[in-house]
Amino acid sequence: MGKTGVILMNMGGPDSLEAVQPFLYNLFSDHDIIQIPRLIQKPVAYLISKVRAKKTMDYYRVMGGKSPQKEQTLDQADKLQRALGDRFKVVVALRYWHPFTEEALDKLFEEEIDKILLLPLYPQYSRTTTGSSFNEFYRRFKKRGKDIPVVEIRSYHDHPLFIKAWVESIKEHIPDYKDHYFLFSAHSLPEKIIKQGDPYKDQVEETVKLIMEYFPDQPHSISYQSKVGPVKWLEPMTEDMIVKLAEEGIKKLAVIPVAFVSEHSETLYELDIEYGKLAEEKGIESYRRVPTLRSHPLFIEALKDIVEKHA
Length: 311
Description:
The chain is α/β, with parallel strands linked by helices and 311 residues long. Among the domains are: 17-62, no CATH class; 160-289, Rossmann fold, CATH 3.40.50. The protein has helices spanning 20-28, 38-62, 69-84, 101-108, 130-141, 160-173, 191-195, 200-212, 238-247, 265-281, 297-310, and strands spanning 3-10, 88-94, 113-120, 150-152, 181-187, 220-225, 252-256, 286-289.
């Protein structure tokens, strides 16, 4: 009898400064994110990646020359493998840099596999993240000619252990949390994607609602970050909310990256450096950012529970 394969899926990030431009090229070549005519997608992706590479490299220099997401995702996979035991084989498939989906399948099929679970490290579903990873998997998997059942885990934004992991992490990293205003920051999306039925915004709001049941009297709000381009995106933007809260007299701010489970440029550079500086300039005296869940024991338990229920 074969094992159940578990593919942990995430975005990935450049593992060196030299990888920044090809990483950006892969990102902007993704039709699930940028929907322009396919005939011009790759030339446009090349131009955008060329233009953005220098500035993006500056971000990664500040972060130590690379994204930590690969190492953190591999650690999550290792912890999950230990928790699940020998009936399962856990591999990592990153969308825009190594290890790619093709590499994950190579590793998976080193052993006999009789079922595959797709487990995205995006707690809230969006076609631009989880959907894109699923599409890439099926493009690669169908070329293998294997008749193996595949189970999609689309989201777990409301899983009790995922929620409790955030609650514990907030209390651990901000013991004086009662003195702070909670600002939940999630990656933004073009508004038109939400209007087309993408559940991401609703699921982010549900996650926050469930976390806040543990902090019933805590003032809080949700904001969105990392807008790119001229079209209308989900609002309010995180930087605008920081300014607004400062103007309202908030002096202590706790920022919670509720849609991220590993560190990357959006947390380490955007939230920590850019917005940290903005908060200081606007008179916020305590600006604290809760780390992403990474390999928090309760988060690994949540993933284990999800896998076992779908195995």
